[in-house]
Amino acid sequence: MEQLIVNTQNLNFSYNKTKQDIENLELKIPKGSIYGFLGPNGSGKSTTIRLLLGLLKKNSGSVVLFGETFNNKTRLKILNRVGALIENPSLYDHLNAVDNLRIAANYRQNIASNRINEVLEVVKLTDAKNKRIKEYSLGMKQRLGLAISLLSNPELIILDEPTNGLDPKGIIEMRTLIKDLNETYGTTIFISSHLLSEIERTCTHVGIIRNGKMIYQDTVASLKASKGSNIKLDIEVDKPIEALSILRNLKMENISLLDDFLQIEVKNKEEITGIIDVLRAEKINIYQVSIKNNLEELFLSLTEN
Ligand SMILES: Nc1ncnc2c1ncn2[C@@H]1O[C@H](COP(=O)(O)OP(=O)(O)OP(=O)(O)O)[C@@H](O)[C@H]1O
User: 231-303, what's its fold?
Assistant: First the structure.
C-alpha cells in the first residue's frame, strides 16, 4: 500500500459557531506525489493548510504527518520535516537574498553554512543572490520564499497558491521548479490553487474541496479519464442557421446553436475535419473552431452549488 505523508481523519474546524468551515476532511497525500488541493475561493484550502501546520486548533479529528499524530509533543519534530510557503514570504527588502537566508537559517536548527548556496542554486537565484530584495520581481521573491522553506531539507513542502499574482513567465518558472524538486529530490509537494489548469499541468494527485468538504480525491489521470470521451466543439460561422440545417440534414446529433456558434459533440478528431469539409463545400465561412476543456466543465459541475 502506498505510504501517506499526510493523512487527516474526520478533521473538523469552525472559526465560529455560525458555520462549519472544515467538515470531516479526509486528506490523503501519498509519498512522492505532487498533490493539488483545488477549490473555489473560500472553500477552505488555507484553513486546511493552517490546521496541518498547527496554526489553527482543530475541533475534532486527527492530523497524521509522516505516520505520526500531530499534537503538542510531536509538533516541533514533525514541523522540522516540513517546509511551507503561505501567502507572500516576509522578506527584508533592504537586504540581499543571502542575508535574508542567513537570518532565516538562524531561526532553524542545524543548517549547514553551504546550504544557503545550495538552496539559491535550486531556485535559480544564484546570479541574483547579492541584489537587494527591493529590486526583485514578485516571481523572484516567491522563489526566495521557497528557498527559505527548503533550508531544512524538508520531505514535504506546502505551498498556498504559489503562482498567485505572478506573470506568465513567473508562473512557468515556479511550475518548473516544483516539478524539478519533486523529480530530483523526491520531495512530496502539496500545492493549493483555485485554478484547475495549474493543477492539471503540475500535479500527480488532486483533491477538490467545496464548502469545507472533500468532494473528489484521486490521481489527476483518473480525473482526466472520468471526463468522458466525447469531444465538445464550438464553431463560429457567418451563417449559423444555414450551417445548422446543413449538419442536421446529415443526421448529425448533438448539435445546437448559441449566438453565431454551433455547439457540436463528436466522437473523435477525424469527425472535426469532416464537419469543416461539409461546411466549406456549402460556402459557409468558418471563423474559429475551439475545443472545450471538458475537465474545466467537470470541475465547475463538481464545485457549483
Ligand atoms: N480568520 C477568519 N475568521 C472567520 N472566518 C474565516 C477566517 N478565515 C477564513 N474564514 C472563512 O473560512 C472559510 C474558508 O476560508 P479559506 O480562506 O480557508 O478558503 P480558501 O479556499 O483558502 O480561499 P481563497 O482561495 O480565497 O484563499 C471561508 O468561508 C472564510 O470566509
Answer: Alpha-Beta Plaits (3.30.70)
Cβ neighbors of 79 (< 8 A, separation 6 or more) are: 53, 54
Instruction: Write down the pLDDT at residue 240.
Output: 93
Which ligand 1 atom minimizes the distance to the CA of 47? 18
Contact 261, 289 (CB under 8 A): no
Share of the chain above pLDDT 70, in %: 97
Whether residue 274 has its Cβ less than 6 Å from ligand 1: no
21 CB less than 6 Å from ligand 1? Answer: yes
Judge whether residue 305 has pLDDT over 60.
no
Q: How far is the CA of 41 from the centre of ligand 1 (A)?
A: 8
For residue 23, is pLDDT > 80? yes
Question: In this structure, what are the phi and psi dihedrals at residue 180, rounded to the nearest 5 degrees?
Answer: -60, -45
The domain spans of the chain are 4-225, 231-303
The CATH number of the structural domain formed by 4-225 is 3.40.50.300
Between the CA of 132 and the centroid of ligand 1 the distance, in Å, is 33
